[in-house]
Amino acid sequence: MPKISVIIPNYNHADYLQQRINSVVNQTFQDFEVILLDDKSTDNSRDILEKYRTHPKVSTIIYNEQNSGSTFIQWEKGIKQAKGEYIWIAESDDWCEPTLLEHLIEGIEQDQDCVISYCQSYCIQDSNKINWSSSHKQLSEITEGENFMRTQMLLHNPIFNASMVLWKKSKFSEISYDYKNYKLCGDWLFWIELSRLGKVHISGRLLNYFRKHEKDVSGKAMKSGLNFIETLTIINMLFKRQMISDKDYYKAFKMQYREYYPLRNSFESEFKSKIEQLFRNPLTSKSTYYKILAGTLWKHRRK
User: Fold this and answer.
1) Torsion angle defined by CA atoms of residues 286, 292, 192 and 173, in that order, rounded to the nearest 10 degrees
2) Contact, 97 vs 207, CB < 8 A?
3) Least confident segment among 125-129, 176-180, 194-198, 298-302
C-alpha cells in the first residue's frame, strides 16, 4: 500500500497539466500513488492525461460524464479511491518543488497526533511573475491544532491553497460535510475542522507554486464580494457550534470588516446588501457592529 495518495482534480487546465503531473511524479519521496480526475473538460486535457495512463505511479484515471460543478465533489471522489495513509490534493494548475513530499511527510510523522503538514507557497501570476509569498518564522514547527485554528486559521488562513498541504486520511470521516456548501471558502472550513482533530506541522520552506491566471474562477468570485458572505457565514456557524469563543468571534468579525471597508463601494448592490446585513447582525451583541465601524473609520481617517 502506498504511504501517500496524490489526487489531481482537473478541469480545463490542459495548459498546466503536464507541468503539474511531472512535478508530482518526480518527487524525491516516492512512496505514493497518483489519482487523476477530470471533470468533463472541454479542452485537450484528456489527451494529456492519457499520456500518463501507463505511468507506474498512476493508479487511477477517472473521467466524469457530466461536469460536477464542484471542486469538493471531486476531492471526495479522489479520497474514496485513495489507498494511502495520507492525502495530498495537488491542484491541476499549480506545481511544486521536488522535495515537497519529503519535507511534509517528515514533519507530519514527527508526532503521531499530527493531522496536517503544510509548507509555504509562492503566489504566481500565470507562469513567471511572483505576486507574493507566504512565510513562517521557523523551518519546522508542530503546534496544537485547537490553538492553531483560533489564532491563525480563523484570522489569517495560512493554508490558502490545497496544494501546499499533506493530511491524514483517517480523519476525513470525523469532519462535517458543510464545506461542500461553499464555493470559495469551503476549503478554509475544511482545514479549520481538520486542524481541531490533532496537531499541525508547519514547514517554513517555500515548496509550492500557487498559480493565478485568467481562468481562475475564485479570483472572479472574490471580486463580487462572495468571499465576505461565505466567510461571515462560516464564522457565525463556528460560534453557534461553540467552536470559538466570544472573544475569537469579535476578533474575526472585526478583521473581516476592516478588510471589507475600503472595498465596500466596488461590489454590486445585491452582494453589498447581503454583506452589510451580516455585519449589522452579529451573534454576540448588536453594539459590536457600531464599535467596529467606529474603530475602522478612525483607523482610515488617521492614514
Assistant:
1) 20
2) yes
3) 298-302
